[in-house]
Design a protein that fits this description.
alpha/beta; 6-stranded mixed sheet; 6 helices; 6 strands; globular
Amino acid sequence: MATLTRTGSAPVLRTDFSDQQAWLAVRAAIVAPSDGDGFLADVEFIDDPAFDGWTTQQILAMATREAIGFQSCIFVVDRITLTSADRPVLVIDLLEERGREFRTVASELYQIENNLSISNMDFFEFADAVQADGVFRGF
């Protein structure tokens, strides 16, 4: 059975294994320095086929405090991420409103990770700033 383990970095969980090139492109966009300031997302990629096809409900059931510590959210690269032109990564809240979710373009993931990891902003601030299509593209 697949499990998550504690890490000091925000987890990026791959749940779709249909397109290796798209996965590599998403990874590259996530770890690229931000424009201008060069901020980086502190993430750990979980690339295990045992998670193929997992749903939000399965992820939440597995993402207990005992399993992952005090991570405030989990980033999920799913089929929508890999098949959409702007590669919107799913963001699932694990603390404030557990299970609330939205999507972010990979190039803005650093903003979410950086600010949540130091408690500078709350999950809802990003979730409430999505565009009409439900995707966060920055402030």
